[in-house]
């Protein structure tokens, strides 16, 4: 169907009438509010001698007003359609970029039996969750509560998405979220389900995108994440966020990147002469979901699961950098004791059935943090896999332990919010149970 063109403003006033009407007598108003014609008739702006002389002239003038309003409405609709097309175009461009980088990565990996089976499993997994992905995708592109593609830096992929609550009564707590993706396929839209569900509980979520391998290596990823966190700290108040209640969260590889960014920032603050754009003190707590924090323990584990040693070491910039990007090891270094003391409270969530990144990663990191005086704990969920906590359980709807624990921690100091949480409606189911169970069985993660 051909697109409708905005109606032009037609029927201009005749030259004989135009000079007689000063600007103050125009019947249009700046807010485009309807004007009561009876009021105009009872209290004319002009003397009768200067008024329009016939009902046909009046109808022409009011017709112009109505058509002017229609023109504005069509322009606004056209602008919304244009914004939507731009968002879809940007998403398509990012998808193309990720696909291109994936094929570039395949040249590193080689096409072996293990990777072929994993890609097939990933395709089956995504297919089984399509009902949920469609609903989340519709929300992501069509909801007025989502601000997509906000630029926070000058590097590729330096964008973030904001998920805003409908309720605007006062500053809201904020979660700065770093998505996972094995340091290779991470993308900000992966956090849209979490963003949608937390925003329904009056929590703002900022999903921060970052360069992936081979577009960048771990130092680039940590730099991007830190710059995104800085943007959130400086600007979130403009979007209704509370700068005093900012929480940092990451999932899987994103949990590792976020932890590295947080520790690196603490080291900068404890040092001298380093320019800092945000402060660790601005982060009220750090939440790590299914993350890995000791790379020395993960090199062989990932190699056996298909992320080969050579590729993993390329991502992490060689063996010499493993210590620097292993938060569990770094916090035990005596020479950064002051920096470690600056860290906020840390809560690490993990499923005991996670075979992508073992739950021991969270347990050992929590123990190491406690050993150096940091308030930390590991919260384990019996039998939950790497994707159960982040995808299957949220798509199942109803109540799930991780989500409720997370919301309770964020709202811990807000009795009014806790009272609302107690009577909140259960989340709706997005995917039939049988498809969720099949997806769990074929998941390559």
UniProtKB/TrEMBL annotation:
Gene Ontology terms for molecular function: hydrolase activity
SUPFAM superfamilies tied to this protein: alpha/beta-Hydrolases
Reaction(s) catalysed by this chain's protein: [protein]-C-terminal S-[(2E,6E)-farnesyl]-L-cysteine methyl ester + H2O = [protein]-C-terminal S-[(2E,6E)-farnesyl]-L-cysteine + methanol + H(+)
Swiss-Prot/TrEMBL keywords: Endoplasmic reticulum, Golgi apparatus, Hydrolase, Membrane, Transmembrane, Transmembrane helix
Segments forming domain BD-FAE-like: 160-369
GO cellular component, one term: Golgi membrane
Pfam families in the cross-refs: BD-FAE
Residue stretches of biased makeup (Pro residues): 9-21
The enzyme's E.C. designation: 3.1.1.n2
Membrane topology: Multi-pass membrane protein
Annotated spans, Disordered: 1-21
Cellular localization per UniProt: Endoplasmic reticulum membrane; Golgi apparatus membrane
Segments traversing the membrane: 119-141
Family: Belongs to the AB hydrolase superfamily. Isoprenylcysteine methylesterase family.
The name this protein goes by in its record: protein-S-isoprenylcysteine alpha-carbonyl methylesterase
């Amino acid at each position: 169907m051909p697109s409708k063109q905005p109606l032009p403003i037609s029927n201009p006033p005749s030259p004989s009438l135009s000079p007689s009407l000063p600007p103050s007598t125009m019947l249009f108003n700046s807010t485009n509010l309807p004007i009561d014609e009876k009021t105009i008739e009872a209290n004319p702006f002009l003397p009768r001698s200067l008024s329009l002389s016939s009902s046909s002239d009046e109808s022409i003038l009011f017709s112009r007003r109505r058509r002017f309003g229609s023109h504005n409405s069509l322009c606004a609709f056209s602008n919304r359609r244009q914004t939507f097309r731009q968002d879809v175009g940007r998403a398509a461009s990012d998808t193309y970029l990720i696909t291109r980088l994936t094929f570039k990565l395949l040249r590193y990996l080689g096409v072996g039996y293990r990777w072929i089976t994993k890609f097939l499993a990933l395709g089956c997994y995504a297919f089984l969750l399509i009902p949920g992905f469609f609903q989340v995708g519709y929300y992501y592109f069509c909801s007025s509560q989502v601000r997509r593609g906000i630029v926070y830096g000058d590097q590729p992929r330096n964008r973030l998405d904001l998920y805003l609550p409908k309720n605007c009564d006062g500053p809201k707590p904020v979660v700065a979220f770093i998505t996972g993706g094995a340091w290779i396929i991470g993308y900000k839209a992966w956090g849209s389900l979490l963003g949608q569900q937390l925003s329904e509980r009056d929590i703002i979520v900022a999903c921060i995108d970052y360069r992936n391998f081979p577009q960048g290596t771990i130092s680039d990823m940590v730099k991007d994440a830190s710059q995104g966190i800085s943007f959130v700290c400086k600007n979130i108040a403009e979007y209704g966020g509370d700068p005093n209640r900012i929480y940092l969260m990451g999932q899987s590889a994103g949990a590792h990147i976020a932890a590295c960014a947080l520790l690196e920032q603490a080291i900068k603050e404890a040092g001298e002469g380093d320019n800092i754009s945000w402060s660790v003190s601005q982060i009220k707590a750090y939440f790590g979901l299914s993350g890995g924090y000791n790379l020395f323990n993960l090199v062989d584990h990932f190699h056996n699961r298909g992320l080969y040693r050579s590729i993993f070491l390329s991502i992490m910039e060689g063996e010499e950098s493993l210590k620097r990007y292993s938060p569990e090891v770094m916090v035990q270094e005596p020479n950064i004791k002051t920096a470690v003391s600056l860290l906020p409270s840390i809560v690490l969530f993990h499923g005991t059935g996670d075979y992508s990144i073992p739950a021991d990663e969270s347990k050992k990191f929590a123990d190491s943090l406690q050993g150096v005086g940091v308030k930390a704990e590991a919260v384990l969920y019996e039998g939950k896999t790497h994707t159960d906590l982040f995808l299957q359980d949220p798509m199942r709807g109803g109540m799930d332990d991780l989500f409720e624990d997370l919301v309770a921690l964020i709202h811990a100091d807000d009795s009014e919010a806790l009272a609302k949480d107690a009577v909140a409606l259960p989340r709706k189911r997005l995917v039939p149970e049988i498809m969720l169970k099949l997806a769990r069985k074929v998941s390559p993660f």
